[in-house]
Amino acid sequence: MNKRQEKSSTEDHYRSVAEKFDYFYQEYYEGHIPVFMKWLDLKPSNIVADIGSGTGFIAEQLYELSGLNNPVWCVDPSAEMQETAWQRTGLYPVQKTAEEFVSDPEISQVFDRIICASATHHFIDPDAVFKGIVRSLRPGGFFIQVNTVAVGHPMFKSAEKICSTCRKNVVKPTPRLLQEMNLQGKISHQEVTTSTMTVTKSKLYEMFRCRYYELV
Ligand SMILES: C[S@@+](CC[C@H](N)C(=O)[O-])C[C@H]1O[C@@H](n2cnc3c(N)ncnc32)[C@H](O)[C@@H]1O
């Protein structure tokens, strides 16, 4: 798949799952949000951006749980995902790709925290995006990239295998790649096991039928 085909298949995927996205990821959010809160260590005065923010569920939680004074910038190119984000509290949705967003000189040194959960693998130009993210951080600010590296269910293992053969040209920014990019500042990498996700069998089958996860 070339980059254009990849982009349009990503758009189609999120168009089809947008309506049920929060329901599909409810258990994932329950396990992950306490971890995000701990890592982000937010202060009410922080200016926060969520890149690849989807429906804005995470951003709304960060806003409410930390009592932020300013809305969280939610950057996502999908109109359907952003439609839900517009209905939430404490968000400032920006319908752009990460590439478009970071190329705007107006956002230089604006953010105290930037989070990107399960979206960096969609970046068309990860090198430009990561450098842009560094430019958009204020002194003392930091960026957190969150990726799921393993899901216990065997279904995901075979899906990962198939995907790595059919999407060879898609760059997954790994800690090693980030190190090689010569970004300013420190980079650290941590693997965390979140609490076990429990979903009923009927819900899991519904998730699979709806192809809730793009690799399935
Ligand atoms: C798996 S979802 C994650 C959504 C959200 N971070 C969450 O965890 O609920 C990935 C999101 O990345 C967005 N996305 C796709 N291509 C993107 C790009 N080039 N720049 C930024 N976001 C992108 C999709 O529209 C989708 O909403």
From TrEMBL:
The molecular function terms of the Gene Ontology recorded here are: S-adenosylmethionine-dependent methyltransferase activity
Query: Record's superkingdom?
Result: Eukaryota
Gene3D superfamilies annotated for this entry?
Vaccinia Virus protein VP39
Q: Where is the Methyltransferase type domain?
A: 50-144
- Quote the InterPro entries the UniProt record gives: Methyltransf_11, SAM-dependent_MTases_sf
| Pfam families assigned to the protein according to its UniProt record, in alphabetical order | Methyltransf_11
* Name this protein carries in UniProt: Methyltransferase type 11 domain-containing protein
- The protein's organism comes out as Desmophyllum pertusum
